[in-house]
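TA notes. Do not distribute before section.
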Amino acid sequence: MEKKDLLWFGASVAGPAHQEANMPCQDAWAVGRWLDDERQPVVCGVVCDGLGSRPLARQGALAGIRAAKAAARQWARAPDAPVSLLVRLLEVLWRLEVAPAPAVDCATTCLILLVLPGSEERRVVGCVLGDGLAVVETIDGIKTLGGRLPGLFSNETLALGTVHHMNDWQILDLKTPGQLRVLLLSDGIADDVPTEHVASFLSWGNEFETRSPKGRGRALRRALERWPVPGHTDDKTLVYMRLEGMGQQ
């Protein structure tokens, strides 16, 4: 989809393991854009990955999307507040969304990235719990947030609905005046993208910009369904966003 200041697209596909078991994709994603009280655009991207071992994983991921978007809208009204309050609000809203189901049955990772307006610079705030990966390219280079923590096996991760602490959330908080490009990835893709290939992978996402707005999502879905890493059975989600530089809207 395209707005004057924002281009974005994304897709989720069920991995081979879930396809063989006739199960739906347990990833979920969303991109939202709204105007703040000063009529300036706020952009929010979210990716949630329900833990496959939990009976209500898909419900938990969908609840994570709703909770993250609601928390972002509320927190963005007071952007000088600590980022920890965004996280706390998201956690509470997610538990309300999944109630009365036990939170442990709905466990999901959560990745949220907010782009807030400013007079000369945008503020970029990212929060990740679990093994999702955010890639942010600014005029100062590429920064990554999230990914699988050292010492965890491929089927282990931190998540909403599991025991964790505030400092288990990984946080990114930066300001930039220039163009932004962002990738948000679930672990079904992030696990296959080593650090040294992040820049190339961002460029691969950029190639979809040349397609028509309606064709981008379809083309991306086909690419994810034909994922070239043999033996990778997990669900896969990719969200791409590009925001023009300040003064270019």
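Switch to the second chain here.
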Amino acid sequence: MSISSKTYGFTFNGRHSSEFDIRILATKQITLPQKRKSLIQLPYSSKQVDLSNVYGENVYDERTITFPCKIPFGREDQYELYNKVTEITRWLYQPVGKILLRDDAMPNYAFMGEVQTAPTLEENYNFSKLTITFQCDAYRLKKRFDDVWDLFNFDLDAAQETEFDVKEFENLMLINTGDREAELTVTCENPVDLILNDQRYHLLSGGNSNDDLILSKGENLITIVGNGKVSFDWTEEAI
């Protein structure tokens, strides 16, 4: 979607904000996630021990995204105004827990978010301002690219093949461009053996995923032993 003052918005709960006559104002705010620190003061010492990265990666607090919105209804027709506000709040409040939130300004990313804080309404004569805040996970979901170049970012993305026709064996590399490890799903036409980062797995025909099939950040060396089509899928996460 091309971004313009008329069409720019966000998609949530299966609908785009423009469907509700919402126009996003220029003062949108996104908070970046803050590192969460777990500091322990050593007895009889001025030093502190940081336990926040005990599992090998940083821990972050959630982020917020605030959309100040203009709707073309005001005090001159309060019946229409409150009908529209009711329609919007039902749309925003319906999901239970966090679901996908897409911002048109970041077409390659999505957030997991929900509206926890009540939107604020400022009435004017023939328009009103509605401020909507989403509480979101720290990490964004990042679109994984194969060899398609649409919206491809040469600085942040890696175009790569993710489907292979294996004959006896295949050596390949998968690149996880996210900021965290990613769970890998491998779909096989026939049973194969897969060696991922020096660990061997026997995979059955169909979809295979488990807690051990993990792509590390960056480059991952893979060997497939067997025959038939094998495809890989994963979701990347980025700060």
